Amino acid sequence: VQLVESGGGLVQPGESLTLSCVGSGFTFSKYRIYWYRQLPGQERELVANITKTGENTNYADSVKGRFAIFRDNANNAVYLHMRNVQPEDTATYFCNMFYVTGIYVWGQGTQVTVSS
Q: Are residues 50 and 32 in contact, defined by beta-carbon separation less than 8 angstroms?
């Protein structure tokens, strides 16, 4: 059971970026997927999540209106489209799922740096 993030990088303020989270080893369409972000020495912040079918999404207030989460179950992928990024969006971004009781699966993270 694995989640792998990609798509991070260095971007300038105001630009857009799309992160990917690809799952393997499980039936991807049966799980809600979450995106978190974390700065060194700080707790992980929940950014967005999406239900199994993609019908419902939720966002942190800090990203609402700028980020969009969507999924492609045929390709076992969830995406986080980040629009109008700002320096405060700089963080390592992780995807996450609650697999079974007591077991949460995390990806390795992808770094996003917003700087001019």
A: yes
E-assigned strand segments in 9-109: 9-11, 17-24, 33-38, 45-50, 57-59, 67-72, 77-82, 91-100, 103-106
Cα distances (angstroms) measured from residue 40 to each of 65, 108, 111: 26, 14, 11
Three-class SS of residue 29?
A: helix
Q: Which of 91, 98, 102 is nearest to 38 (CA)?
A: 91
Q: What is the pLDDT along the chain (116 residues), one digit of tens a residue?
A: 999 999 999 999 999 999 999 999 999 999 999 999 999 889 999 999 999 999 999 999 999 999 999 999 999 999 999 999 999 999 999 999 998 888 899 999 999 999 99
Which residues 6+ apart lie within 8 Å of 4 measured at CB? 21, 22, 23, 24, 107, 108
Are 95 and 83 in contact by the 8 Å Cβ rule? The answer is no
